[in-house]
Design a protein that fits this description.
Shape of chain B: globular
Bound molecules: iron/sulfur cluster
Helix content of chain B: 25-40%
Oligomer: heterodimer
Structural class of chain B: alpha+beta
Number of strands of chain A: 5
CATH superfamily of the largest domain in chain A: NADH:ubiquinone oxidoreductase-like, 20kDa subunit
CATH class of the largest domain in chain A: Alpha Beta
Number of domains of chain B: 2
Shape of chain A: globular
Strand order of the largest sheet of chain A: 2-1-3-4-5
Strand order of the largest sheet of chain B: 3-2-8-9-10-11-1-12
CATH architecture of the largest domain in chain A: 3-Layer(aba) Sandwich
Distance between the termini of chain B: 60 Å
Largest interface: A-B, 45 and 47 residues
Order of helices and strands of chain B: EHEEEEHEEEHHEHEEHEHHHHEEEEHHH
Largest sheet of chain A: 5 strands, parallel
Distance between the termini of chain A: 65 Å
Number of domains of chain A: 2
């Protein structure tokens, strides 16, 4: 594609940026196999190093950001990305809440660097893995580890049409019931984070007989105290509960607070 | 064609092969027969082809926030009490596409005139409280001012085979809500299972002409006074075992007065606002409408999806959600179920099935909350004992 042609193009431009992440979320875009042709017909993907050699300069209509901010370089880069993107969307748990790498936020990162790397002097990293919204304003957050490709498609379609996306913020339980699942917690005593986790995955884990791991992060009004009480009732120890809240969305403040509460409670006992 | 139809209301005795023939008769008439089956850790309602699909020997234990599938020695086909999901999932499906449209030049073209042709359902095993719940949904969704096309189409074609409970769960309180067995109306056929070491039979009666026609085709005997007494006693024993209660007298007024009661804060501390209670409730009917367009901007669809008064967007108006706190959302739910529903539809919106108690992950109990609200009333005005 020549840059001349792209300049005349009326399609909205999209850029996909990667920060500290595993690539799973941006690959969801490519996984929309059936819709991919319609998508590239409707939008112009002008910067997507993962998938294409085309790398046009901004500004972009929509910037999709995957990954959390973990280095000084990334902290500067996210400012540029914000300046270049009319609409900035975070893709997934890393960009939205710091990701699984935010587990280091409770540890001494320098100690980890010294333990892992033979030449720690070459490593320059921040103490914390933080979500994009801690650095710049974000227009929309897509949750999940990875995101739901259908939610991404819905967000793009809604943005192009100028309508509000249908992305509910209620619990996973709503989707679980809609799928006609039998509740794992009630019928089997399986701990499940569904009641405090935002919908969007289609209750994927409960549908396969696994309690929800909370990868979509806190729902709109998560009662984490009730969740702690329920997990304790189901025989889970406080260290186990701390770990349950500290996975993909560990640094989301409600989950973070809940995990720390259980940690302190344990120390206090 | 059989000319001598069994009289409506007359009780007959049938055996298990005859029940199988009834299922066969319904299938021959083009019904999709749905009944209880064991799936995973529970008895659920799903497609059945004959009595062999029914959950022989399955029972259940239910308590607030807990359900366990159990085995019974007697091989009863309806020895469990209630399935987690009610018949609502068939009559008022949680997701339905209302229409789709395509751009056509400067106009648009509807891709379908409305919902797809409805399936013809026959439900086997509708309990008395569930019949009452269907009657409530009829009042809401087939009302004079509003009649819901999806519900109407599915409901009108439905054939209902009731089963009178001969066991009750500790979560049941149908006796308080005046929906207890035996089923009195609203069914095509009604069964009462009699199972003992001597025999495994059903007392059956037709409640409609369609029911009588199906019953006419199967081998049966008129029930003896002894059979009828045995059925009555089994039902009475189930009712006698029910201990959960809601005192409904003056309840609506009480709830309106208790708008600011501290009990709402107490329950809000435990409530997840997860919405499970509204999804399992056989009468809760609330939905939302989602308009969506595809990425090309050429096609649009309108979907109706189940919603819940426990979600924030449920009351989203300009400026935000009206019910931000968990307290206000739980209060809305309970006050509507047991109070405001009476003003709107002429009866409470609760039939006492206990599903919201069993399937609440937090084990919140509507009967306990209602009693607690009344209890401080009684302390306050100095009459009666606090519960
Ligand atoms: S299995 Fe989990 S997500 Fe599903 S209803 Fe139960 S608590 Fe909610
Ligand atoms: S009462 Fe129970 S089921 Fe209902 S929203 Fe609250 S926690 Fe969920
Ligand atoms: S409010 Fe609860 S007990 Fe009453 S009908 Fe609904 S689910 Fe059943």
């Amino acid at each position: 594609m020549s840059s001349k042609k792209a300049a005349k193009d009326e399609r909205k431009t999209i850029a996909v940026f990667k920060f500290a992440s595993c690539d799973g979320c941006q690959l969801s875009l490519l996984e929309l196999e059936e819709e991919l042709l319609s998508i590239v017909g409707a939008v112009n993907i002008v910067y997507f190093p993962e998938a294409s050699r085309v790398m046009l300069k901004g500004p972009y209509d929509i910037g999709l950001v995957e990954g959390s901010v973990t280095t000084h370089h990334e902290a500067e880069l996210i400012q540029q990305v914000r300046r270049q993107s009319k609409m900035l969307v975070t893709l997934g748990a890393c960009a939205t809440s710091g990701g699984i790498q935010a587990l280091r936020n409770w540890k001494d990162v320098n100690l980890m660097v010294r333990t892992v790397y033979r030449n720690p002097d070459f490593i320059s990293t921040l103490k914390l893995s933080t979500p994009v919204a801690e650095h710049v304003p974000v227009d929309f957050e897509l949750r999940g580890c990875p995101i739901s490709k259908y939610q991404l498609l819905e967000l793009l379609s809604a943005t192009l049409a100028g309508r509000k996306p249908n992305i509910p913020t209620y619990s996973v339980c709503m989707e679980c019931k809609r799928r006609d699942n039998v509740c794992l917690t009630v019928a089997q005593g399986t701990p499940c984070l569904g009641p405090v986790t935002q919908a969007g995955c289609g209750a994927l884990c409960p549908s396969f007989n696994r309690g929800c791991y909370g990868c979509f992060g806190p729902m709109e009004s998560p009662n984490t105290d009730a969740m702690i009480a329920l997990f304790r009732n189901l025989g889970r120890s406080d260290p186990e509960i701390t770990r349950a809240f500290r996975t993909f969305s560990a640094w989301a403040w409600q989950f973070r607070q809940a995990s720390e509460e259980c940690e302190h409670e344990r120390k206090a006992r | 064609m059989v000319t001598n139809l069994p009289a409506i209301g007359t009780q007959f005795l049938i055996d298990i092969p005859a029940l199988d023939s009834i299922i066969g008769g319904l299938r021959r008439r083009g019904y999709e027969v749905l009944g209880p089956v064991v799936r995973g850790a529970a008895v659920v309602y799903d497609a059945i082809e004959g009595v062999n699909d029914l959950p022989a020997g399955a029972g259940d234990e239910q308590e607030a926030g807990a359900y366990r599938l159990t085995r019974r020695e007697d091989g009863a086909l309806f020895g469990f009490v209630l399935s987690p999901h009610s018949w609502k999932k068939f009559l008022h499906p949680p997701e339905a596409r209302l229409f789709a449209a395509r751009r056509d030049g400067r106009s648009f073209r509807l891709l379908n005139g409305g919902p797809a042709p409805p399936p013809r359902y026959a439900f086997l095993g509708v309990r008395a409280c569930e019949l009452a719940a269907i009657a409530i949904q009829d009042r809401v969704l087939l009302g004079e001012s509003y009649s819901d096309a999806t519900y109407r189409a599915r409901r009108q074609g439905a054939f209902l085979v009731a089963v009178n409970c001969t066991w009750a769960a500790p979560t049941c309180f149908c006796t308080s809500m005046r929906t207890a067995p035996p089923a009195e109306a609203g069914f095509d056929l009604a069964l009462t299972e009699l199972v003992s070491s001597e025999r495994h039979v059903f007392v059956i009666e037709a409640g409609s002409r369609a029911g009588a026609e199906v019953l006419a085709e199967v081998e049966r005997h008129e029930a003896s006074p002894g059979d009828r007494l045995e059925a009555e006693r089994a039902i009475a024993a189930a009712k006698a075992s029910i201990w959960r209660k809601v005192n409904t007298s003056g309840l609506r007024e009480l709830l309106y007065e208790k708008f600011d009661d501290p009990r709402w804060d107490h329950v809000a501390q435990r409530c997840f606002t997860c919405g499970n209670c509204t999804q399992v409730c056989p009468t809760c009917f609330c939905t939302t409408v989602d308009d969506s367009s595809d990425v090309t901007g050429q096609q649009t669809e309108r979907w109706r999806r189940s919603d819940s008064c426990f979600s924030q967007n449920f009351t989203f108006i300009h400026g935000g959600s009206v019910r931000m706190s968990a307290k206000s959302r739980y209060r809305q739910w309970l006050t509507h179920k047991l109070g405001a529903w009476v003003d709107q539809f002429g009866s409470p919106g609760c039939v006492g099935c206990g599903r919201c108690i069993t399937w609440c992950p937090a084990g919140i109990d509507i009967t306990q909350e209602a009693a607690a609200l009344r209890a401080d009333e009684e302390i306050a005005i100095g009459k009666g004992d606090a519960i």
